[in-house]
Structures are given as C-alpha cells and as structure tokens.
Amino acid sequence: MSLLDVTDLTVGFDTEDGHVHAVKEISFSLEEGEILALCGESGCGKTVTAMAVPRLLPPHTTRLSGSIRLGGRELTTLPEPLMRQVRGSEVSVVFQEPMTSLNPSFTVGFQIAEVLRRHENLSRAAARGRAVELLELVGIPAPAQRIKEYPHQLSGGMRQRVMIAIAVACSPRVLIADEPTTALDVTIQAGVLDVFRDLRDRLGTAIILITHDLGVVADIADRAVVMYAGRAAEQAPVEELFARPRHPYTLGLMRALPAAAVAGPAGRRRLAEIPGMVPSPLTDPDGCAFHARCPRRQDDCLAARPPLVRHGPAHLAACFHPGHPGEQP
Amino acid sequence: MADQMTVPVGAVPAAGPAERRRRLWRRFRRRPMPMTGLVLVAAFLLLALVGPLVTGDPVTQDYAATLAPPSAAHPMGTDDLGRDALARIASGARISLQAGVLSTLVAMAAGIPIGLLAGFYRRWLDPLVGRLVDVTLAFPFLVFAVGLAAIIGPSLTGVVLALGFAQLPAVIRITRGEVLAIKEMDYVSAAIADGATDGHILLRYVLPNCAGPLIVQATVAIPTAIIGEATLSFLGLGVQPPTPSWGVMLTVAQQYLDVAPWLAIWPGVLIALATLGFNLLGDGLRDVLDPRSGL
C-alpha cells in the first residue's frame, strides 16, 4: 500500500453545454517522500486530478467515481467535516497565483498562525513562534520581521514561499503544488523549486507537482504522469521517461522543448510543434484521443482505445504503436 | 538556503500599515472636494456634540421676543414661542446626528450579516433574500421610510428604526455583491484548501475585504438618514415637538416664511451642508479606498 492510491479516478462536470469529461480512469500512486509530476497541456485534466484528492472541486456539479485512498483511508466518501480536517493538515495545496492567494487584510504571520491554531490547537504565542520557524524553513530572510508584514509588501516569490509555509505548517503527508512556479520570474522559479526539494528531504513530504513545464519535471520530479485529454498517456520514472519516451505525445512534447529545436531552412532554429487541437472534452469517442494529431497513427488507433501497457519496470504507456526504446526524443 | 540571493530583501520597500495610512492621507488631503467634505462633517460633529453645551436651553420660551430677527442675544433669531433658534439648531444637530448614525448602524448591523449569508449560500438563501430586496427597492426610499415610521410610531426611536430598515435593502445588496466577488478570489480557495470552516471564511476572509465599500456606503447612508429624519419630523412622523429637530423647525418656519424667513433658512442650509459634507467625504473615501487606485 502506498501513501496515496488513486484508482480508476473519473471526474466529470455537469455544465450548460452538457457533461464534460475532465478526467478518465486515472490511476496512480504516491510514495512517502516522492515527488510525482502530473504534466500535460492546459485542459488535459492534471489540475482536476490533483484537486480531486482534497475534494476541492465544485461539489454540486462534479461527478466523481473511483477510489482515492490516503494511508488506507478512503477520501471520496469521507464526510465533509472530517474532510475539512484532512485539508491543510494531511493534504495541502499551493496554488498557482501567489499574488492573489493570500488574504490582503492580515499579516502573513497571522495567516500562518491561523492554520496552526485551526489544526493543532496551538496558542497564539506558540503559533507565532512556529510561523517564524516556517518562514525560515521556506527560505525567507529576516522571518521575525516578515511575519509582521502584509502580503502587498512582499514580492511574488516571497508570497509563494509564504503560501508554501502555510501549506506545510501542519506537516501534511501530501502536498499538492499546482503550477507553483508558473507565475514567477525564471530566476525566482529555481529558488522555489529548491524549497520543495528541501521540504521533501527534510520533512519527507510527498509532493504532487502539477506542471506543463517539462524542464521543471526533469529538475525536481521522481516520477511523472503525462496526461492527454483526461487520460494518462504515459507514466514512468523521470529518468526513464526522458531517456526512453514511448508515447508519441510525450515524444512530441520533448521535441517542442527549446533545447531540442532544430535548424530551419534560413538557419534560424525553430521549435517543433504538435499540429492540431485537443479534442473537445464534451465527447469521449472510442479510439485514441491523440489519434488526429499523431504522426504514428494507423487504422487500429481509431477502432479501440489503447490501454496502458507496461514497457519496462514502472513504465506504462497507452499506445498501439509506441516509439522504440532506442529512439531519441 | 542557497537561493536566498534570488529574493533581495530590499526588492519591496517595507511599508507598514502606518506608512500606508500616511500615504492614503496624503492622497486624500490633496483633493479639495473630499477636504471640503471633511471640514463640513467636522463642523457638523462639533455643532452636534459641543453646540448644545454652550448655546443654552432650546425649549425656554421668551414671549417678550417672539419671531425676533438675529441679534446679539439671539444670533439666529427666535421662533414663534421666543425660543432661541441657535440653541434649537444645535440641539437639532444632535438629533440629526443620532438619527443618521444610529439608523445607519441598524442598517449595517442587520444588513451585513444577511448580505454575507445570502452571497455565500447562493443556492438556498440568495434567491429568497434577493427577491425580498428587489421588492423593497421597488418602493422609493422615503415612501418606504414614511410607511415604516407610520407603523412604528412617531419618536426618535421610530425614526431610527424606520430609516434603518428603509436602508437595509441597499446594504444587503452591496454586501452581497462584494461577497460574490470576493468568494471567487484565490485566497478564499486557499482558505478552503487549508480546511477553513464557512464561518471562518466569512469572518476572516470575506468580511474584512469588503469593508471598503461598506464604509463608503455608510457615508452615503448617514446623509440620507439625516434628510430622512428631517422629512419624517417635518411630516409629523418623526421627532415630536417640543424636542428640536431640523425637520420640526422647518414645519414651524413655513408658517412664518414672510415675517421670519431666517427660521426656514438656518435648518434648510444646515441640512444641505451636512448632507453635502458627508457625500463629499464619501466620494473622497471611495477614491482613496478603491483597490484599483494602487495603494
């Protein structure tokens, strides 16, 4: 049994345009101290998958099936008051937008202390002391001064560190980071990623990192799930994934990295792109969802949906005609 | 940590709340209209709070000097019963202030919780509250207040309650609108993700962040209530004689417009100046407190 086991998770939303299939039959597990990346392009379902774990999806329109077990406890059927205790103490979330994710009316110290008081019943003074320690943990200089400041006095990178401090205040077992560095300057990004790595090393926190940035995946993740149109296209340890990508979508993503750009006719280097569009989530046709954009497609891709097949130890890919193990991305 | 250098400590000037207040004040002080409003409101407060202590008794009658024009003994003249108009103006200011502030407090105390809950629990409470607010807003404010005052009965308490309830729908609507916007903010999502309860989110996240528009609404509600009190008292539905109220004074003054016009001019001008002052102040506060003003 892993720390977190997600099995056959399917999430849909009732909308005015009909039922949206956001996530389909995703399964993955997370071990203690592991950093798992959920990656893919916008709308591929990576955020919905992660937010289903602490049940942060809109309750009235979400249709969810499958199983999410945290330390053996089923979360999908947990009563809401108990789920509220899980949020922030066992499963925490760091959101994408540090500029707007802090309450502008209170000091950052107060906001960190509040989570501690809520979940751990600390006294005001004890919570304040812990808040200073937490700011130090996430690499904020002069934490004793910083806790007296308001969010608008901090830069984006600082605010994201404060968000991380709030998220890890109660030593959660699982930390979900939703594009935590996307809104930050490139120079700040590396520092924030270091904070996550440091937390994992020091506290043993397991991290689900949602990202569209394969550079971030390569930098920090242990394992990655590449998602496409709500399904897992490929899942593998990161080194294996980058060395031997099997799914044509993963291959396409890696060819689109600036480092992989090839010289064009005019001598200018051009980024490779994946032609076409993501299929509409309003439909869920048979066959491979990537079919229309796939350079390796054949007739059978449209007839049936390729299942996730083992291509090596811990390496799964959902493709009838995968790339060869030796093929360089 | 090794990456500390990527976040220079001095990147953002450390500006405390005191510094922010100073900046807001500087911004406010430079504008003539809000400052005029502030001066007028300050003068009104001074008149209401200190005036009655120095002007003498507003109900002492002097039949030797009825309807006397302004003089050294009676700087604003006297009314038909020989009562000093200045003393009555000062006491009337106190009544106006009470009516304005207390009815606004009533409206805020009842309207903010209702608006918070309606905006937060949109699925079951909001449709009900929304329809009720729409129905009451369909009545003109004064018609609604007159109707309520007639039901509650003529007294200062009646005026406060009638005006408070008449202002309630506007407060509910403004609060609800703010809640709807703030509910979608990232920091509310973050609070939910941290395991905050609904009550906690309402009191710590939603309420403090809609305080700005509510403060502005209060500065609009106070002058509205001042005019409302004068109107109700003028119509005999509010403060009753001999208690001096600017509205009561106008009722008497209209009978003597030809012989003692000053009796109508003083309360009329003061009602206008007091409401103008609060409105200018409110406009200024709205500009300064607007988050889009970048402060």
Automatic annotation (TrEMBL), chain A:
The record's section on CDD domains has: ABC_NikE_OppD_transporters
Q: Does the keyword ATP-binding apply?
A: yes
Q: Does the keyword Iron apply?
A: no
Keywords for the protein's UniProt record, in alphabetical order: ATP-binding, Cell membrane, Membrane, Nucleotide-binding, Transport
Query: What topology does it adopt in the membrane?
Result: Peripheral membrane protein
Q: Sorted alphabetically, which PROSITE patterns does this protein's record hold?
A: ABC_TRANSPORTER_1, ABC_TRANSPORTER_2
The subcellular location is: Cell membrane
Say where the protein is mainly found: membrane
Q: Which GO terms describe its cellular component?
A: plasma membrane
- The record places domain ABC transporter at 4-254
Which GO biological process entries does UniProt record here? peptide transport
* Superkingdom assignment: Bacteria
PANTHER family registered for this protein in UniProt? DIPEPTIDE TRANSPORT ATP-BINDING PROTEIN DPPD (PTHR43297:SF2), OLIGOPEPTIDE TRANSPORT ATP-BINDING PROTEIN APPD (PTHR43297)
Read off the NCBIfam families from this record: oligo_HPY
Its family remark reads: Belongs to the ABC transporter superfamily.
Protein name stated in the entry: ABC transporter ATP-binding protein
- Species assigned in the record: Planotetraspora kaengkrachanensis
TrEMBL record, chain B:
Q: Name one GO biological process term.
A: transmembrane transport
- What is the membrane topology listed in the Swiss-Prot or TrEMBL record? Multi-pass membrane protein
| ABC transmembrane type-1 domain sequence ranges | 93-282
Q: Which PROSITE patterns match?
A: ABC_TM1 (PS50928)
> Membrane-crossing residues?
95-120, 132-152, 259-282
Please indicate which superkingdom the organism of origin belongs to: Bacteria
**Cellular location(s):** Cell membrane
Q: Which family does it belong to?
A: Belongs to the binding-protein-dependent transport system permease family.
> What name does this protein carry?
Glutathione ABC transporter permease GsiD
